[in-house]
């Protein structure tokens, strides 16, 4: 995730942190909730800063592993996790050179994602830039925007369309909506 990225990776990075909240109140009792999500967005014109306790670049495996207190910041978007593994194409440059063509980013260890008033927490996450999907999963995946809270165990977002699905994994999806958060005309 070093700048500059290839055009495809830059376009995917703009939407890689899609986890916005636009679920309808009528779906609160469903075992699975599906809706269009606004999305947390990275900006093409802002630098990406990555901090971690350790970085191991394995060019022969086309991977870079950031471990220990990983923090990624771009503009108003922040991603924090215990570990982050960036997988990139063999012919797509390298992380050290700043021109990697990123295929997938795996994060684990108390994943936290924030942009503006939107937040998401999970145990693990996968950002697949080829399929343009984001999956956050864990015992308890929590999404919030202000006082609106959505809880499940697996969130799947198709970044291209903004379609999202929150699964309960055997239990029930829980949604708490603040009536004051509704837009008035």
TrEMBL record:
Keywords: Signal. Residues 1-24 form the signal peptide. Gene3D superfamilies: Lipopolysaccharide (LPS) transport protein A like domain. It holds the Pfam family LptD_N. The keyword DNA damage does not apply. Residues 49-162 form the Organic solvent tolerance-like N-terminal domain. This is LptA/OstA family protein. It comes from Shinella pollutisoli.
């Amino acid at each position: 995730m070093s700048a500059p990225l290839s055009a495809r990776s830059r376009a995917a990075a703009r939407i890689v942190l899609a986890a916005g909240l636009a679920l309808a109140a009528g779906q609160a009792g469903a075992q699975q909730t599906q809706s269009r999500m606004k999305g947390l967005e990275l900006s093409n014109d802002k630098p990406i800063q990555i901090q971690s306790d350790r970085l191991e670049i394995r060019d022969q495996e086309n991977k870079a592993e950031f471990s220990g207190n990983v923090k990624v910041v771009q503009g108003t978007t922040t991603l924090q996790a215990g570990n982050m593994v960036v997988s990139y194409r063999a012919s797509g440059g390298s992380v050290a050179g700043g021109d990697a063509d990123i295929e997938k980013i795996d994060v684990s260890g108390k994943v936290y994602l924030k942009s503006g008033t939107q937040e998401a927490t999970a145990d693990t996450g996968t950002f697949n830039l080829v399929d343009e999907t984001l999956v956050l999963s864990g015992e308890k995946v929590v999404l919030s925007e202000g006082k609106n809270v959505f809880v499940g165990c697996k969130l799947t977002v198709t970044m291209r369309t903004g379609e999202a699905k929150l699964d309960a994994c055997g239990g029930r999806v829980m949604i708490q909506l603040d009536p004051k958060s509704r837009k008035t005309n």
